[in-house]
Amino acid sequence: MLPKNDGEVEVNPYGGSLPYTYAWSHGPTTKDVKNLEGGKTYGFTISDANSCQYTTSPKIVKAREFKIILDSIVHRTGNTGGHIYVSSINGKGPISYYWYNPQGIQISNQEDLTDRTAGKYTNIMVDSNNCKTEEKVFEILQLTAVDKTILEKLKVYYSHTDQKVHLKYLENIEIKSMSIYDLQGKQILHFPNPKDVEEIDLSDIPMGLYVLQMETALGQASVKISKVSRE
Hints:
By secondary structure, the chain is mainly β. Helix content is 3%, strand content 45%. It contains 1 helix and 20 strands. Strands 10-9-11-12 form a 4-stranded antiparallel β-sheet, with no helix packed on it. The mean pLDDT is 85.
């Protein structure tokens, strides 16, 4: 992200009689000015020794924000996956990349992060003008196959008709917590005490793929939920 006040104006006068004097609408009396706010207009007057004047009002062009774009996340399944693919817009190359692990230690200077364990990872980019993006945090999930024992006790399915996830308890099973994540690792819904949860309403969230993650007395289980249009 570009600093808010990083604009500047350089003046190269000619003609008239020396010496010149300078006056800017925001106060300075120097020829050149720095630390100007993007998108703002500044009044400027130059006078020569004979009091001849020239007045103008340069406008500082506001640069587009340098941003990180998430292309995709490949979550962990067993011992495979764990990739975060990113790109950027509005930065001037070459771009430098900085990835940090959950402990805040830099772990990579490559554009994409690959072959990592589950956890949250922070990305920052810096372009050749030394402009820096806002830091972005992405989470890699550990998607475990639902244990056969859990499947024998709990049936989970999504209904397109009512846009709800239904949980049918075939046997008694203790569920300690339950959350729904999107594929970028963002938690959409969370149930800290889901003892009596039998359905989850997804009507207010966008179409897409989601992960229902459950912590049970038998271990952790993850179920992919596909909320897509049937048209």
